[in-house]
Amino acid sequence: MDGFSQYANLSGNPLWDLSENDPRCINVSCLAYILGYLDDQDRYSNDNYPLYAYWTTYFYCATVALFAIVYVNRRLRDGGAGSRFKEQAKAYWRMWIYRRITGKLGEQMDMSLGQLTIFIIATIFILVLPFAQGYFLRAYFRFGSPPLSVRCAMLISGLLPICIALAGKVNIVSCLTGISYAKLNVWHRYIALMIYILTIIHLVPHVIAPIREGGDIEFKDLLQEGRRERSGIILEVSFTLMLATSFPYFRNRFYEAFKFLHVFFAVAFFAFLTWHVTGEYLTPDFLWASVAILIGNFIARAVYRNRTTTSFNEFVQGYPTSLEILPGKMTRIVVQCPNKLRWRPGQHCYISIPGISKLQSHPFTIVSLSTPYLSAGPNDLVILMRAYSGFTKAVADLAKTPALNITNQPPKPSMPNTPSHSYSSSFPGTPNQSYSPSFPGTPDTSLTIAPSFNLPVELTMATRAWIDGPYGDFHPALERQYHGITLVGGGSGITAGLPWLVYIASRMRTAAHGLKGLHGEKLCKTRTLHLIWSIRDLDWIRWADRELTEALRDVMIANTQPQRNADGEKGRAFKLQISLFVTKSPTKAEMKTAVIDLYLRAGVDIYNPHARVEIRTGRPNYAGLLPNMLDRKRNMILTCGPVSQKIDLANSVAQLQSMVIQDQAMEISLHSETFGW
Ligand SMILES: Cc1cc2nc3c(=O)[nH]c(=O)nc-3n(C[C@H](O)[C@H](O)[C@H](O)COP(=O)(O)OP(=O)(O)OC[C@H]3O[C@@H](n4cnc5c(N)ncnc54)[C@H](O)[C@@H]3O)c2cc1C
Predict the structure, then answer these.
(1) Residue 566 C-beta-side C-alpha neighbours within 13 Å
(2) Which end of the chain has less neighbouring CB within 10 Å, N or C?
(3) Is there a single domain that holds both residue 369 and residue 393?
(4) 263 and 361 part of one domain
(5) Does 258 sit in the ligand 1 pocket, CB within 6 Å?
(6) Using a 6 Å cutoff on CB, does residue 251 contact ligand 1?
(7) Which of 174, 388, 471, 473 to mutate for ligand 1's pocket (most ligand atoms within 8 Å of CB)?
(8) In this structure, which residue's CA is closest to atom 44 in ligand 1?
(9) What is the CATH number of the domain that holds 379?
(10) Model pLDDT for residues 618-666, shown as the tens digit of each residue
(11) Is residue 646 part of a domain?
(12) CB 581: neighbour CB atoms within 10 A?
């Protein structure tokens, strides 16, 4: 009461003795207002509000910290023997988190039970908080904004910086957790949706409270006079439009329009929010924090993007690039990058072809290896691009035009005519010729075998491309942690597995030479490498024939080195098994010829026990296949492909955790990639 004594009825204030429900009793010149306000504060104090924003921040910081600890632990782990208890506990945990809901619902959700659990916890946390303490409206609207509204506003304040942090391609959460921005994007969208739901909950009491007190007229007056009510409505409308244009239905059909509108509405959102919250306590702090994070994201991206210096010509026009048409609407793109540009297996980049559009850039997985991992050859960045209806179709069309240089800038003379230059086909000291295939009893078989599909034709188009990246998961070196690696690809999803296939095979070859790491550690623990690739047509093998043959050759060479066992893994050969599943049934003869064709190109004996290829028809039955492919020690299964395949595989891997529990394997880990967000 002390703070209000100055307003006491010292000079005969006519409003002082009005009753609480008198519409004129609206401020501190009325005693009933003062008493009512204080009563209301006793029931629910304004001091509680900031806690909601802080709790939200703590919740997400704790979640990020948890994932960061897991990530650091994974990076530091050497893949050696852990405690049986830990392995079994992890297996039980994975039995649950890997599992996915089957059927249409599962395909639409496209998430594992592990992800679903985190979403459910986060949703319960956010949606319970504003309601848990009750007291949604103040006794009178004039005593202050409804507590339910303010709590929601505080939760929104806490969520906003996190939502913005998750939006950047180079962002702090990715750096701390090793999770690619592409995977975190689902959280950016989820948090944006939560913010939207909270804005609705925030808005409703703001409509009910004035109408309850002064009827429609009071609400209309507020709209006409109240800055916050007007700015709030405009903010809500612009946010609704931003969300509506971000939903998959719109985004998938009009991606370029979505990108433009998203930036436009985001700028509008910040402008209207600043207008809406100016003068509020606490909320502006979170708003400025969000703006700071946004600017930080831009700067980090700009620095990252320009970290390698290029010549002026390359900066303006892009790198020399060749396009090659492959069957099944696939285009193979080879970009000649400077040696300074490096990437790791599993990463992707954004490519723009100024000859098509200077503004469009699209993400694609990098199939080739870069300089530190290449044994020889140019630092070519290879992309396999499946044509849809927009940019990718324009690239495919460009590749079909007669070979000419659309930029009028002749590419470097060293530019490969066909992208086969992207991988060296020989290893120092092990010339290819020494591994020509032999077919016992059929001395000249190679001459009589007709390839099952056309050999690559010289349909190569030269152009130029800008590369932005690489981006993507910060994978620890898999070959140092896992003894068995299985790559599972469906259709064009093979692009996620191919760089790993070539990389691990090349590591096997290096390890066979007895080379060790800086601290004497093994360079490659992986002993069994499998590829399971489902394709519709047999001739889709051509998408990846260079990588497949490269890997076969490397594994064959790895097993011919006398030093193979120098790293202590005595008696264990390096093994590669490529299993191709073709759904549009080819004839047996066609399949046989395709297999022999791969062996021939790889220069590998068809009876080589270590580098094997098989082609089967139909879809793979993962539950039946995987147990025979797994190593007794640590296993990693990497997958990318259609959602239905992901569901099948994830449920099989969840089931296979029983092998760890029964001590038939030390670990079976699963990692899924997705083309999109
Ligand atoms: C991390 C990542 C890696 C990828 N790797 C490959 C790959 O190796 N090979 C491959 O063939 N495809 C890959 N994709 C998919 C590829 O980016 C899209 O197919 C391509 O951008 C479609 O362009 P478009 O204009 O022809 O699309 P449209 O015909 O307009 O649309 C086809 C689909 O692509 C989506 N899409 C369109 N533009 C983009 C964009 N800029 N970013 C993300 N999605 C978009 C649309 O939402 C729609 O679902 C990858 C996607 C991501 C996110």
Answers:
(1) 18
(2) N
(3) yes
(4) no
(5) no
(6) yes
(7) 388
(8) 676
(9) 2.40.30.10
(10) 999 999 999 999 999 999 999 998 999 999 999 999 999 999 999 999 9
(11) no
(12) 19
What is the SS3 assignment for 353?
Answer: coil
Strand partners, 460: 324
H or E stretch covering 385: strand 380-386
- Which domain, by its residues, includes 233? 133-307
Strand order in the sheet with 484-490: 611-617, 575-582, 528-535, 484-490, 634-640, 667-673
Structure tokens at 225: 């006079």
The answer to whether position 378 is within a domain reads yes
Of 334, 392, 398, 498, the residue with max ligand 1 atoms within 8 A of its CB, to mutate for a pocket test, comes to: 392
Domain endpoint, select from 424, 452, 474: 474
Considering the domain architecture, whether residues 197 and 252 belong to the same structural domain is answered as yes
What is the total count of domains within the chain? Answer: 3
- Do residues 323 and 469 share a domain? yes
Q: Is the pLDDT of residue 217 over 90?
A: no
Same domain, 321 and 224: no
pLDDT of the residue at 358: 84
Distance 539 CA to ligand 1 centre (A): 23
Residue 517 confidence class, pLDDT cut points 50, 70, 90: low
Question: Does 450 fall in a domain?
Answer: yes
The DSSP output letter for 544 is T
Q: Is there a domain that residue 639 lies in?
A: no
Q: Examine the domain organization and report whether 325 and 465 are in the same domain.
A: yes
- Residue 670 pLDDT: 95
* Number of C-beta neighbours around residue 675 at 10 A: 17
Residue 264 shares a structural domain with residue 347: no
Report whether residue 391 contacts ligand 1, using a CB cutoff of 6 Å. yes
b/e sequence 445-474, b meaning 16+ C-beta within 10 Å = eeeebebbbeebeeebbbbbbbbbbbbbbb
The pLDDT tens digits of the residues spanning 482-515 come to: 999 999 999 999 999 999 999 999 999 888 877 6
Asked if 161 and 295 sit in the same domain, the reply is: yes
- DSSP category for residue 634: E
The phi, psi pair for 670, rounded to 5°, reads -125, 135
